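User: quick one - fold this with IPE bound?
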Amino acid sequence: MSSNNEQSNYIENQPTEMSGINVPRHVAVIMDGNGRWAQERGLKRMEGHIAGVESLRTTIKEARKSGVQYLTVYAFSTENWGRPSEEVNGLMSLFCKCLEQESEELNKQGVKLTFIGQRDQLDDEIRQSMEKSEKLTETNNTLNLIIAFNYSARCELTSATKKIAQLLASGKIDVEQINDQLIEQNLYTFDIPDPDLIIRTSGECRLSNFLLWQAAYAEFYFTSVLWPDFDQKCWKQAMENFSQRKRRFGLVEPKL
Ligand code: IPE
Ligand code: IPE
Ligand code: MG
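Assistant: Sure. Structure tokens for the protein plus IPE:
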């Protein structure tokens, strides 16, 4: 690789610049702390999930205003099925209700909705709601909102591995053709760029089975704020913090 190429790779991988601050193209959020927020107030855990919907509305609005192109939110993990059935059922109903209520408004705002995760384990009603809102918003382009629902990064990688194994077994590809690009093409996120910034609320500093492949070069921002308290000010702090990061992608900063 020539030094010119090295420099241009370095520059291409940097975030876009808007009004003096570097804006991440793709922000992914682990919306955590709803249960603790409710418990602190002597409320049922479901009240925390309901309160968290407002934070999601604010985040979508702020992401659009900031010029973020992709926003991925972790709404339900495959591990979350292990919670008490009252909470799981409550989360499923809340998700369905929100989709019904918010899709029109998101469409008006020009938001394109996509869901990632294992759909086949979900009720027909939820699956149909997902397909309906994806169809309704498919030509929109102000913000790509990706909702990870019944998502597991390990399941995503296992599913990609199976698809590639089938291509191999049927003779459509040979072993030499298995590379990063082929794996990416077989992930749920095949047409979505990698996240530049991953935000997790509630003080936990872990990925909890979220975007394991895609997070290879993401910047991480952990805040102790519980998700229902995550507001415009918190979003701005995360953006400012990201703006100061020096991303090298294994390279060295070119001398200007
Ligand atoms: C995140 O909040 C929402 C989901 C996982 C569905 P939690 O419900 O995990 O809240 P805490 O972590 O128990 O406070
Ligand atoms: C991760 O939060 C999943 C979502 C935010 C949907 P959890 O609360 O389920 O994760 P752990 O249990 O703290 O790792
Ligand atoms: Mg949690």
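One thing worth noting: Residues 1-12 have pLDDT under 50 and may be disordered.
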